[in-house]
Amino acid sequence: MGIKSRTGKKLFVLDTNVLMHDPTAVFRFAEHDIFLPMVVLEELDRSKKGTSEVARNVRQVSRFLDDLMSHNGADEISNGLALNGVLQLSNDSDAEQMGHLFFQTHLQPAELPRSLPGNIADNNILGTALALRDMAKDRQVILVSKDINLRIKAAVVGLKAEDYHNDQALEDMDLLYSGQAPLESDFWDRHSRDMESWQEEGRTFYRVSGPDTKEWFINQLLYQEGDTPFEAIVRRKQGDDAIIEWIQDYRSSKHSVWGISALNREQNFALNLLLDPEIDFVTLLGTAGTGKTLLTLAAGLSQVLDSNRYREIVMTRVTVPVGEDIGFLPGTEEEKMTPWMGALTDNLEVLTQSSGGDWGRAATDDLLRSKIRIHSLNFMRGRTFLNKYIILDEAQNLTPKQMKTLITRAGPGTKIVCLGNVAQIDTPYLTETTSGLTYVVDRFKNWPHSGHITLTRGERSRLADFASDIL
């Protein structure tokens, strides 16, 4: 049995960047077969050293390939290595139907146009895929790459090419959970028959049941506009029954948080999530100027200095490009991260400007900085944070695996807040649908101790608002 004999199965030729992005990619193509050109193995070998995320992924790929060899035997290489049994990513019935992995043993690249010299790795992969297509004429050969330019070149020479989609959290960003839902104008008329209401410790609760509640998620924010606006949060769900709670209004100066008041409904929702002791994980999405960092810092300082709920604030963000060593900058880890923390400095100025006089501002600034620690993501592995309020800025630049690495650092009593704008991703091969921030928003949306809100209204200035609309 070889490549030619497995008719009816698609044959996917993987580019190196696919394996660097997702080490389990060879197991993600169901019953179809995988082909790895020799130049891909060479590129993997050159990228295996180091402590970056890419290097770790490459080493994991090598371990998977070694396991495949040991399960199948080296003499089976020409017939393809069976992928079932090494990594269980599907149900048992599908596992038996998984495809085979083929390596390039004797194929020579096909003739390419003179403008595409074969000594370049991408062109070598392209030539190998073309030769493979000519050899196995009864099979559909597809090149899979995260590199847009390689896919364009493949289309130019008549080869079918696709992006790697298996790591997408969503098919369309329009499907991303927003964290809030409007109530229809006749909602109370349709749900008032079996509704109950009560108060506990100054908090107002409602028990409602009906068809609308099926679409709700725990800790989702509900609102109804009109002469008597209503804003609540879903606290519990069981079948068609749901318990919702009237939320606190932080838009008045009387209920401001560290001198900061919510300027719109979404900011009020965000402050309710940030100040809720029962919510351990909060994600805030929004464009520049929607107040993500300011609200998060104000809520953090209130809970660290006023209520002593957390011991200190830990702030971190991705240094672009992701995983780049910050060692070339002078000073300690915190001093090295300072150039990346402009958002922290800017927002601290807003929070301390009300302190009386220069001396008062300096004293307040020193107090705040003693309670705020700045850490690099590069040194998060192996750590455990106890009773900390962790702020992760620019979270859209993290992969799902990096996001998992960070969130699993949380110890008892720790709250993690992830901030980001998925429209501003700087990490190569990462898109809105594959970002770690999109991934956690989708995966955490029904966990009782997490909350999410998407901020859409900019509140910086009329200049910033006009620029964002017109430019």
Please state the oligomeric state of the protein chains shown: single chain
State the CATH architecture of the largest domain: 3-Layer(aba) Sandwich
Q: Main beta sheet, described?
A: 6 strands, mixed
Helix/strand class: alpha/beta
Strand content is 15-25%
Per DSSP E runs of 2 or more residues, the count of β-strands stands at: 18
Radius of gyration: 27 Å
Question: Main attributes?
Answer:
471 residues, 31% helix, elongated, 6-stranded mixed sheet, Rossmann fold, alpha/beta, 3 domains, 15 helices, 18 strands, Elongation Factor Tu (Ef-tu), domain 3
Overview of this structure, please?
The protein folds into three domains: 11-162, 5'-nuclease (Rossmann fold, 3-Layer(aba) Sandwich); 174-246, Beta Barrel (Elongation Factor Tu (Ef-tu), domain 3), CATH 2.40.30; 263-470, Rossmann fold (3-Layer(aba) Sandwich), CATH 3.40.50.300. It is built from 15 helices and 18 strands. The protein has helices at residues 16-21, 38-46, 53-72, 92-95, 121-135, 148-156, 187-191, 265-274, 292-306, 333-337, 342-352, 357-370, 400-407, 436-443, 462-470, and strands spanning 11-14, 33-36, 81-82, 100-103, 141-144, 161-162, 180-182, 196-200, 203-209, 221-224, 230-238, 241-246, 281-286, 312-317, 372-374, 388-393, 415-420, 450-455. Helix 6 (148-156) links the parallel strand 5 (141-144) and strand 6.
